[in-house]
Amino acid sequence: MRKLFFLLLMAAVVTPALKAVNVENTAGQLAQLVTDTQITELTVTGTMDARDFLFINEHLTELTSLDLSQVTITAVDNGKTLFGTVTGYSANQIPRTAFFGKKLTTVALPETIESIGYAAFAGCYQLTSVTLPEALAEIDDYAFSGTALTSIEIPANVGYMGKGAFSRCESLESAVINGTTVGDYAFLGDFNLSNVQIGADVSYILKGAFNGCKALQTINIDPASTLIRIDDEAFINSGLESINIKSLPMGTIGEWAFAQTKLTSLELPGTLTNLGEGALAHNPLLTKVTMPDIRNSTIRRPKGAPAFRRTLEYIKDYTFAGDEQLNPGKMLIYGVKSIGSHAFYNVSQDIDTMYLPSSVHSLGDYAMAGMTGMQVLKTDAVEVPALGNEVWAGVDQPSIPLIAPEASVELYKAADQWMNFFFEESYLLGDVNRDGVVNISDVTALISYSVAGGLDIDLRAADINSDGSVNISDVTALISMVMGSTSELSVKAIRDQIAGKCVATSDVLSLESVSLQPGQTRTIDVALNNDEHDYTAMQCELVLPQGVTLTAVDGIERCSDHSFFSRIHEQESNVYTLIGASMKMDQMTIGEGKVLRLTITADEDFDGNNAELMLANVRLVTPDHEIYLADDAAAMLNNASGIEQVNVDKEIAAVRYINVAGQESDTPFDGMNIVVTTYVDGTTTTSKVLK
Ligand code: CA
Ligand code: CA
Fold first, then answer.
1. Within a 10 A sphere around the Cβ of 518, how many other Cβ atoms?
2. pLDDT value at position 469?
3. Of 271, 405, 541, 558, which is the most buried if we count CB atoms within 10 A?
């Protein structure tokens, strides 16, 4: 008999039968009502308190499924310690450690519970899902830490979430958070968590909340969110690639909050006043950060209040340390006062110009150490900022020009560490290629640099609009500058200036002679015949007869990709400077064909007799930025119409018109004419003209 009992016991241990029990309980009675402690499924109705939870915890070792959905949890304080050293237990609360380490796979919670105690389900390594009731207001420390939950939705009423509430949940993939707070270390080490939704009521993401969430590439924040703080280390060592916080009313981002992530860019909210130490450090993929600028904030300023500018006053220690690809050249804006130690340590990306606004008054130890890609340092600070130790350690200061406010240059030259930079006495703004003059070849050099880089140009001279970087916007500024420099000179004075400096070419512009009547607007096409060089830009003076104005100038055919600019001269009302250049370095390769179209308008008093339009001082620029001077080109604007190319270097001796009957005259016949132009050098050209 004893042997048989033993065998039965063995069988029970090896294959525990599925045993489901329903109990109508009165608080404190569960131990009396459940006699079989090997049950696997239990449904409790009625009431229960901490004593019943203790019974389940200590005796129902095989329990996998627990349904408490119809039970009411009542308070108990019998003076005895039940869980740990605690004696008093509230109503509607799952007691602390109630199910710690149990085999539970499913649990249904009472709709009425308001609180889940410390580590209540921690270590339930088979618990894959739980629905948190709407009434829930508190989730205590580690409540679900180390469970097998795959998703969790936190109801809006949850105003308190303790430490590590869902930490080390290695199967957790999705979290929807509707409460007000994401607690300290809430999802620490949840390395499969990939989908996080932050609801409109979430105000705080606390310390280490998503630390180590390697699968978390982005986080979905409700646009109406009132998130005001992201605490220390909140996303450290996570997989975060992007996060949109720019429009949130956020004041603080804590220390190392976004360190060691995969972020590529980040726009900081305009309201941010505190960015903690190391907040964006060691982000190897980070290329761009937009600093807070209150003017970019969606926060409305009171009606009538003055516009104000606010940004971070303090760039704290290590903020961008190790962000090797970050370009901080233009990042700092007015308002920044100090730059902490190691703030830009090893930010080694190539930077045209690193800019320090005039508000900067100090840089800490090693603040810019290892910034080996810095090419120019520009400071607007009139008072030389104070420096910590070896601010530019590892930086080849003697090769980097320092641009300081003119009045302070001598102070910088005399200041420790600052003095090690290169001080160039002067440079000519616009002389991009450093040849001592500002002209069209500087334009092409600047375009070439902007498009492809690689070209050795004077970056200080090239930053025409003084915004700290050199780009295509400087090109248009430079074109305007070049045109401005010629607009006060006569055509002849310009000729004197360029003659002898530019090599002549036989490549030539030509244009059609046309008929222009008083009050008429019409176009004239200009062609380029080039067999010596390829060109990428041109400049010339357009001289119009009295009574004619330039309406438009456009690149056509061979130059359809070129941008043309014109500016009327200040001294001579009938002279325009024209500049055409390809912003993509497109070339007019050797060949012939139309390049630009002039649109001109004659006033009512225009006299077409002997009226001539001329393109003078024609400078053609090669892709290597060499300028060649071509012959002037001209066209007659008489009453004849047709194709008549005139080269002013060839002076015309006579023009004869021959009609279809073979009659000759020095004035056109009605109908079709053959025009025979004889030049002083004896050559002739012929063309057809319809009168
Ligand atoms: Ca130049
Ligand atoms: Ca610029």
1. 12
2. 83
3. 541
Ligand 2 centre and the CA of 302: distance in Å? 34
Q: Which ligand is nearest to the CA of 464?
A: 2
DSSP summary character for residue 300: P
| pLDDT value of position 310 | 74
Q: How far is the CA of 416 from the centre of ligand 2 (A)?
A: 29
More confident of the two residues 502 and 536: 536
Same domain, 518 and 469: no
How many Å lie between the centroid of ligand 1 and the Cα of residue 482? Answer: 10
> Which domain CATH number covers 438?
1.10.1330.10
Residues 507 and 482 in one domain: no
Is there a domain that residue 97 lies in?
A: yes
Reported confidence tier of residue 476, pLDDT bands at 50, 70, 90: confident
pLDDT given for residue 1 in this prediction:
45
Domain-located, residue 411: no
Q: Which one of the ligands is nearest to 481 CA?
A: 1
Where residue 528 sits, what CATH number does that domain have?
Answer: 2.60.40.680
CATH number at 113 reads 3.80.10.10
Considering the domain boundaries, does residue 37 fall inside one? yes
Measured in Å, residue 428 CA sits from the centre of ligand 1 at: 9
Q: How far is CA 302 from the centre of its chain?
A: 29
Surrounding ion ligand 1 within 5 Å at CB are: 431, 433, 435, 442
Whether 21 is covered by a domain: the verdict is yes
Residues 515 and 644 both lie in one domain: yes
Q: Which ligand is nearest to the CA of 330?
A: 2
User: In terms of domains, do 594 and 470 share one?
Assistant: no
Q: Ligand 2 center to residue 587 CA distance, Å?
A: 25
Q: Are residues 537 and 448 part of one domain? A: no
Verify that 530 and 583 share a domain, yes or no. yes
Q: At residue 643, does pLDDT exceed 80? A: no
Residue at which a domain ends, from 110, 134, 149: 149
Query: Angle of helix 440-452 relative to helix 472-486, nearest 10 degrees?
Result: 180
Total of domains in the chain? 3
Nearest bound ligand to the CA of residue 429: 1
Q: Measure CA 510 to chain center.
A: 46
Ligand nearest to the CA of 435: 1
Report pLDDT for 32: 96
Domain boundary among 109, 130, 149: 149
Distance 474 CA to ligand 2 centre (A): 5
- The bound ligand whose nearest atom lies closest to the alpha carbon of 476 is 2
Candidate ranges 223-227, 340-344, 479-483, 510-514; pick with highest mean pLDDT: 340-344
Tell how far the Cα of 565 is from the centroid of ligand 2, in angstroms: 19
CA of 449 to the centre of ligand 1 (A): 14
d(CA 222, CA 32): 50
CA angle, 507 then 532 then 447, to 5° = 85
Tokens standing for residue 452: 């492809």
Give the closest ligand to the alpha carbon of residue 621: 1
Q: Which ligand is nearest to the CA of 376?
A: 2
Measure Cα distances from 6 to 13, 391, 449, 656 in Å: 11, 80, 90, 134
First and final CA of the chain: distance in angstroms? 135
Task: Output the six-digit token pair for 247.
Answer: 């429009």
Read off the pLDDT of residues 4-60 as tens digits, 9 standing for 90 and up.
Answer: 444 444 444 445 557 899 999 999 999 999 999 999 999 999 999 999 999 999 999
Nearest ligand atom owner, CA of 462? 2
In this structure, the number of other CB atoms found within 10 A of the CB of residue 616 comes to 18
Mean pLDDT of 330-351: 95
449 and 562 in a common domain: no
